[in-house]
Amino acid sequence: MSAVLPEFGYSPSLESTAPLQILERYGLFIGGEWIQPAAGGSFATVNPATEEVLAKVAFADATDVDRAVRAARRGYEKYWRKLRPAERAKYIFRIARALTERSRELAVLETLDGGKPIRESRDFDVPQASAHFFYHAGWADKLAWALAGPERVHPLGVVGAIVPWNFPLLIAAWKLAPALACGNTVVLKPAETTPLTALLLAEICAEAELPPGVVNVITGDGRTGAALVEHGGLDKISFTGSTEVGKAIRRETAGKPLRLSLELGGKSALIVYEDAALDQAVEGIVEAIYFNQGHVCCAGSRLLVAESVYEDVVERLRARIATLRHGNPLDKNTDIGAINSRAQRDKIRELVTSGVEEGATLIQASCAFPERGFWFPASFFTNVQPSYRIAREEIFGPVLSVMSFRTPDEAIERANNLPYGLSAGVWSGSGALAMYTAARLAAGVVWCNTFNRFDPSSPFGGYKESGFGREGGLLGLREYLS
Ligand code: NAI
Ligand code: MG
């Protein structure tokens, strides 16, 4: 079934890569300078839509991690902790403005390195990253009033920030902006498949004349991250990524005098009641599961629909995914871009195969993909039992499991019946029913009749195995102050 006749299709509308200069090789940004890694190692980062190598990036080992942590400590002692808060704010405002001024470049780079549609990197990732710096710059000289206030507050010292590949620039901003505003210095470790916007952010920090060592960026994989966690010279670790690695970090840091916040995986529930505006609910579901190819920690990947409207919602969703445009992430018309890496594509395939084998019915958008690149079509499963792996495990791809329920309490019970608790969505025409439900869901964020609304002033974080600590807003500031 095709909703659009071919002659009324869209012409390609490719975003230009012309403003962007990608270097062949990148070093490490330590102590305000670009330096070579001690052992001289490097690795390639590819464009997941084409598999072409974009750049060679330095591999930081334990020696480089040590250099970065020492540089951050010097930056803290010598400059950052001594600056008047209002002066600190000026630097953070400068970074915020530079992110806006260079937004086109950043959006194109994010899309090339990670595969997300340009529409999303341009309209969501980069503006949100900039908004986080603007918001936190405003707090830098008002921190005494941020908590119970007015009271004396102190920075923690040196923060290790470990970031995943799904929102590389944005999650870096989530950690850097509050850390800097509160007077801390940072060692940032981006993910191995998406290091390039963090390196451009380092360049922006240098152009903003941030004092040396206040922000350091070291590239590498899980070994680099583990070396940072084990270093011993940090006062805080802020980690976003898989639950498995989050648990390993918690074990490693247990009993050590450092603060920890973890933002981990999820398998968030969407609840659609029979009195919901169903077309609006379907748009919310599409936003919840297909945004960023489903590579979203708070993705709504379990849909619970009231039995009386179940068939109706499934048919509307089937029709809607046929109109989603899969394709070149640089095309402004693309809704679903490339899967971030071969490993992630293989993980999605493996879980989808398990769903079919366990007995669920797979419904997919039909589209032809190029030979090269990593792709997966928008998909959902019906006939899902709550015990199936696709109903319990995080897939982190454009795959939704649809189930039905009979009463509000059953929907709530089933939504809460997993070890995760990051977000939830509720659709209902009744405010009372939406509020009744939201109050009973163990999720850090509950969106009603909408999904994926973000603002720097609104805290984000999880329950249970989705982690602890909050990012954004007043609660987020608390994570970087003592
Ligand atoms: P990951 O948790 O391995 O990677 C996240 C970051 O942690 C990267 O910067 C990585 O280099 C670093 N890292 C890896 N091992 C580490 C260690 N032992 N110590 C310190 N840092 C370490 O996630 P991965 O393997 O890329 O993705 C696997 C699955 O994790 C995904 O399929 C998805 O289900 C989930 N995930 C969840 C994310 C979220 O936002 N909650 C983000 C990324 C992945
Ligand atoms: Mg890449």
Tally of helical segments:
15
How large a portion of the residues is in β-strands, by DSSP E? 15-25%
CA(first)-CA(last) distance: 58 Å
Indicate the radius of gyration in whole angstroms. Answer: 22 Å
What would the CATH topology of the largest domain be? Aldehyde Dehydrogenase, Chain A, domain 1
- Any idea what the CATH superfamily of the largest domain is called? Aldehyde Dehydrogenase, Chain A, domain 1
Outline the biggest β-sheet: 7 strands, mixed
What share of the residues lie within helices?
Answer: 25-40%
Which regions have little confidence, pLDDT < 50, spanning 5+ residues? none
Give structural notes.
By secondary structure, the protein is α/β, with parallel strands linked by helices. The protein has two domains: 25-264 and 466-478, Aldehyde Dehydrogenase, Chain A, domain 1 (3-Layer(aba) Sandwich); 268-456, Aldehyde Dehydrogenase, Chain A, domain 2. The protein is 38% helix and 17% strand. It contains 15 helices and 18 strands. The strands form four sheets. The chain has a seven-stranded mixed beta sheet with strand order 13-14-15-12-11-16-17, sandwiched between helices. It has a six-stranded mixed beta sheet with strand order 8-7-6-9-10-18, sandwiched between helices. It has a three-stranded mixed beta sheet with strand order 1-5-4, covered by helices on one side. β6, α5 and β7 form a beta-alpha-beta unit. α4 (118-139) runs parallel beside α5. The longest helix is centred in the first third of the chain and has 22 residues, at 118-139. It is globular. Magnesium ion binds at residues 45-46, 113-114, 193-194.
